[in-house]
Structure formats: C-alpha cells, structure tokens
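Q: For a teaching handout, I want to show students what a protein-ligand complex looks like in token form. Below are the inputs, and the small molecule is magnesium ion. Please produce the holo structure.
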Amino acid sequence: GLADRLQGTMQKIRGKGKVNEADVKEMMREVRLALLEADVNFKVVKDFVKRVSERAVGQEVLKSLTPGQQVIKVVKEELTELMGGEQSKIAVSTRPPTVIMMVGLQGAGKTTTTGKLANLLRKKYNRKPLLVAADIYRPAAIKQLETLGKQINMPVFSLGDQVSPVEIAKQAIVKAKEEHHDYVLIDTAGRLHIDENLMDELKDIKELTKPDEIFLVVDAMTGQDAVNVAQSFNEQLGLTGVVLTKLDGDTRGGAALSIRSVTNTPIKFVGMGEKMDALEAFHPERMASRILGMGDVLTLIEKAQMNVDEDKAKELEKKMRTASFTFDDFLEQLGQVRNMGPLDDLLKMLPGANKIKGMDNLSIDEKQIGHVEAIIRSMTLQEKEHPEVINSGRKKRIAKGSGRSIQEVNRLLKQFEDMKKMMKQFTNMPKGKKKGFKLP
Ligand code: GDP
Ligand code: MG
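A: Here is the structure, written as tokens, with magnesium ion included.
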C-alpha cells in the first residue's frame, strides 16, 4: 500500500531530524508510484501529486516533529477530497415514483445491485420500490431478478423477453403509480463491451422514463477499464452516480479515485459482497484509508495527540514500535486511553487489526477496566514486565489478590499477548511482510 512505501522513506528521514524539500520530493515520488500501481489514472495522479507537494513543502509538514506522518495525513486528506464529500444522497421525485435506471456492462453487478438497492431503500428509508426486469437479452436475467425479489420479499415487474425494454419500462411506471410504489428500479441489459445498440436502447429508456437517477454499476476489480467505461456511459447518458461493486474483493480501489475525478460523477454506493445487505453508502475517507492500505491509524494518531501529552504520546509510539510494552505501561495507558473514547474503537483503528485472529478477544468492556486495573495491581514487578513467568500458582495468587476469577486473569493475559502481537504487526507493516515476501 501507499502507506507502506511512504513509511520506508519516512524511516530514512526520521534519522535525519529535520525534513527538507528534497525529502518531500522523494516522498512524492513514492506517492506517485504507489498510486500508479493502485491503478489510478495517470493524469489524476499527476494533478494529485502536484497538489500534495504544494502542501507538503509548506510549514505544516516541514516544521512538524513527525513529517512522514504529516505527509501521509496530507495525502489522506487530499485523497478524500478527490473522491468528494458525503455523496450518498439519493434523489426523491416530487412526483412519485422516483425512477432509477441501473446501467453498466455485463457482469458488473447491475441485477444484484438493483436487488440490494431496493432492500436498502425499504429497510433504511422505509420506501416501497418496484423492481423492473428490463434485461431481455441475457439468458435467465429476468429469472435472476425474480429470484432476488423473492429473497428480499419485493415485487418484480416483468413482461418476459418478447417485449421491448422500453415498453417494459413504460408499463412498469404505470403499474408503479397504480400500486403506489415510490421508487422504480430498472435493471437494464449490459454487453461485454460498450456498443451502439446498447447505448441506443438505454437512451430510449431514458427518453421515455425521464429517470431521476442513472446509476452506473462498475466492477472495482477492473481498475482503469472501469474509468473508461464510466467516461463513455457518462458522455452518452449523463450519469448521476456510480456504484462500485466487488470492493470486498482484492482491490485497492484505485478506480474510485479516477472515476470521480475523470467523470465528475459521485460514487454513491459500494458493493461489499453478493448478499442482499452488502450495499453501503460510499465514504471517501474510508476509501482513502483503503487506498493508503492502513487502518484508521491517522485518527488514532490525532486522538493521541489531542488527549495525551506530547512526551507521553512519543513514549507510547516508541513502545508500540518496539513492542516493549509491559503491564505497567498498559495500566498507565488505560487511564489516558479512557479519555479518548471506547477502547474497542481505538483498538479497531490499529492498521490490520481487523485481520488479526482473536481480535474479538481484544475488545475490552469499559466497565471491566476497573477489574483489569485490579488484576494488574496484584502482579509483582517481575510479572508485569515478564508476564510469561505467570504460572498457575501465580495466577491463583493474582486472582485472590484482585478479587477476580482465574478465568479473568487468563483472559487479560491472553488479551495482552494479542495486543503485543498486534503491535508487532503494526511495526512490521512498512516492510511489506504482509504480502508474504521478504525484502533483500
Ligand atoms: P450484471 O450482469 O451487471 O447484472 O451482474 P450481476 O448482478 O448478475 O452480477 C454478476 C456477478 O457478480 C454475480 O455473481 C454477483 O453475485 C456478483 N456480484 C455483484 N456485486 C458484487 C459485490 O459487491 N461483491 C461480490 N463479491 N460479488 C458481487
Ligand atoms: Mg443483469
């Protein structure tokens, strides 16, 4: 990820103390390469790097004690900016039904997304959508939508595959009015490639139904291609939004960046799986984190900076880096961390934390903090610094001394162990070990 690359450079710079313009330039080269690797459009990268550079050579970075992190912060802010603000609004027609046309290439996820969107509209917004099967070409496309409709218990309008899509759309709207549906979601046909026949048909449907939204559904895995697809659909039809599907897969999400800036069309939703509840509003900031390849570590750093005094924060950072974290540190941090908000949230912000086995065990109930403190206070100095010496006899003594059960003592020891492992992972991340190869 981008963060990995930057941190390598950061490490070098850290040793030098102050950061200068040449250092920033070097970092920007890494940013550029990483974005291109993430399949972001060339022109977008160029403009982006220019903007970040301007900010990065400014005072906010050069004067900072942690220039590398500051650069990442600037990068993240600019990435977020590039993908627009909060854009997950959906049109509501003053004269119902609101018509939404779903368009895109074959296999992008139109039919699935039509089902998901209907589901979301009903569950979250209490709407009453009608699904319309207007893909008469792909074998079993109608059946597929009907099956999804059954799954989410929602009506699907279809006239078979012998009636033209335009006619289907027309009659669907009449029906929607009769039956007081407030949304009509039209699932249209796709092709493997953009062709004129497809576009003409879509234009006809648009002409007739005057849709309030035209959503392009694109597969995030297709990277640069997704951008070209978005551009030509936008030119021909005028899109109002993009749905980026298959983000649950192994993609960095570079397409998200380019689509937004090349077509100037907001990404409104992201598909996170095949299930009917796997559609989420698009959050530029989360996508920026994803592209950076990190958990929400910046928020964590910011919180630490706000709530912990600076010396302590540096000490904590160093300890996390070296993973030389003892129960005494833990105890001390508990107090400080308490001021930052729920512990679970904080732990989840650590990069890669969601991928770590046993992460669930890490969550600590706020109410249990007192118990945890009691247990730690019952440990000897040696036990606090070297918890591996805690055998069953010692566990019994600690449990007794703290008035907690042996199971609780065990749980805490396990949590502490997991936390240290997580910190180690955090420390190792910049070296690219996640991908399973070693650097020479
Ligand atoms: P269409 O040809 O555009 O209508 O595409 P479909 O809706 O038939 O989807 C094609 C395939 O992609 C199906 O197997 C879907 O289950 C799958 N799919 C759609 N959206 C997602 C998603 O967000 N994540 C994953 N993993 N699969 C998806
Ligand atoms: Mg389909």
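A: Two things your students might notice: The longest strand covers residues 213-219. The chain has a mean pLDDT of 80.
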